[in-house]
Write a structure and sequence with these properties.
By secondary structure, this protein is α/β, with parallel strands linked by helices. The chain contains 15 helices and seven strands. It has two domains: 173 residues, 3-Layer(aba) Sandwich (Rossmann fold), CATH 3.40.50; 84 residues, no CATH class.
């Protein structure tokens, strides 16, 4: 099977791929810089992935269906640093990679180089917690917390556990404060563009333009005019096509956090929200 036919087959689920492939025949897939899309779980990874799929229509990239590169195994437990770094190194040239990986020294050594483009998306911790509870309770029966969450009397009790974490009876989930330690590690990386989920929703065009700037800032000229590129990426964003889609809104935590949840969150997380820029102080 020829390269064009193979890529057309691999990319068929994402639409308009055949036209994109034919358009890029005159470009080398090795011309464009390596791109990796990374996310905090339940923080907009599929929104980011839809945008990166849009990249294949404006630049000579391939997208090959593959599982994300993960730090945590599907059945629980952490993968070794060497295994994760090997997966990152094995993403083929010209293929957009994606996953959920931490900013370990080995991962940073592979990804954070001046000739690469890395995106990391994160979200308001309160919305992330609400999304995680709904996902683990109702949408993903294989989730490690599925049975335990469903053993609790209501959403409020589940949210309490999501905030504090748990380590008993074979269940281990860190607190919300510990979860975001990895976000700060990515925020410190020079060669990673960190994106708020909220900015992609509420300040979409400026954020998409900044993502395109990140590609060109390393010396590569995107062959599609900027206005057309932006239009393609906007069209690529279709949250309801994500199998994990539930709301796609920002600030939904306000409908689920009681005063007790707010106080518990503040006790556990301290000034986390202020450090991330989501609140000015702890008076929220």
């Amino acid at each position: 099977m020829g390269l064009i036919s193979q890529l057309r087959r691999n990319l068929r689920p994402f639409g308009k791929t055949a036209q994109s492939i034919l358009r890029w025949r005159r470009f080398s897939f090795n011309d464009a810089p390596p791109v990796f899309g990374n996310s905090k779980p339940k923080s907009g990874s599929h929104l980011l992935l839809q945008i990166l799929n849009g990249f294949t229509q404006i630049m000579p990239y391939k997208y090959v269906e593959a599982d994300p590169i993960r730090t945590i195994k599907k059945d629980g437990g952490r993968r070794t640093e060497d295994a994760i770094a090997a997966d990152l190194q094995n993403v083929p040239q010209g293929v957009i990679g994606w996953g959920y990986v931490d900013a370990t020294p080995k991962n940073v050594a592979v990804l954070c180089q001046p000739n690469r483009v890395n995106y990391f998306i994160y979200r308001d911790p309160r919305d992330m917690l609400v999304s995680q509870v709904f996902f683990a309770t109702d949408m993903h029966i294989e989730h490690g917390m599925h049975a335990y969450y469903n053993s609790l009397p209501d959403f409020g009790a589940r949210l309490n556990v999501a905030i504090t974490g748990i380590d008993r009876d074979g269940l281990k989930m860190v607190s919300v404060k510990e979860r975001y330690e990895g976000v700060f590690q990515w925020l410190q990386q020079k060669y990673a563009m960190c994106i708020r989920f909220e900015d992609l929703i509420n300040n979409r065009d400026a954020t998409l333009n900044a993502m395109l700037d990140a590609v060109e800032n390393i010396g590569y000229k995107i062959p599609t005019p900027r206005e057309k590129s932006l239009s393609v990426l906007v069209e690529a964003i279709q949250p309801k096509k994500s199998h994990t889609f539930r709301s796609g809104k920002t600030g939904g935590w306000k409908s689920h956090f009681t005063e007790e949840h707010k106080n518990l969150f503040k006790d556990v997380a301290g000034d986390l929200l202020a450090k991330l820029g989501y609140e000015e102080n702890n008076d929220w």
